[in-house]
Amino acid sequence: AEAEAGADAAASMAAAVHGWQLLGPISPQLLRCLRVLLSEDGPQAVDVSAPPGAADLLPLDVQCLVTLEELLGGLLAPLQEGPPAAAAEPLWWPLYGQLVVAFRRSQHALLSSNVAAVTAIREKLQQQLLVATTNRDEAQK
Fold it and tell me: What is the pLDDT of residue 6?
């Protein structure tokens, strides 16, 4: 339920804003770094100051967001596991287990909301890319 609420909020946020505000809780610097890292034309060919979804960077931005979504999903995966079984509990678990569970819960909520935000942004940019591609194809006919 918590992840669904985050996804709904992220989707409505992504639909209403443009430019750098589109990223919401996602760091603009992270998108800039991913652009440089994933660009096939080399870092010197990337305009890192262009806002997300700029026409010439739209395919790269979608690729960056897919990569970020996968990265955050990978970070989220271990937090989705429950506490260890009684037989496998570490010796320190009786003393610190509740703190570990609370920390894991908070990190799970944080990562879930970030995954929801990245997914909403990616979906919006993919829609823009589809429209741009369709318009370009129609103009060539």
Answer: 57
Q: Are 1 and 109 in contact (CB under 8 A)?
A: no
The total of other beta-carbon atoms located within 10 Å of residue 69's CB is 18
pLDDT of residue 21: 93
Query: Cα separation of 68 and 54, whole Å?
Result: 18
Two tokens at 37?
A: 């890292």
State the sign of the Cα–Cα–Cα–Cα dihedral 104, 67, 17, 48: positive
Q: Is residue 14 scored above 70 in pLDDT?
A: no
Q: What gap in Å lies between CA 94 and CA 117, rounded to an integer?
A: 36
Report the alpha-carbon distance of residue 123 to residue 129 in Å, rounded: 10
Residue type, 96: Y
CB contact set of 89 (below 8 Å; sequence gap of 6+): 83, 97
Phi-psi sector, 19: left (phi>0), alpha (psi -120 to 50), beta: left
Compute how many other C-beta atoms are within 10 angstroms of the C-beta atom of residue 130: 10
CA distance 8 to 5: 5
Backbone phi, then psi, for 61, in 5-degree steps? -60, -40
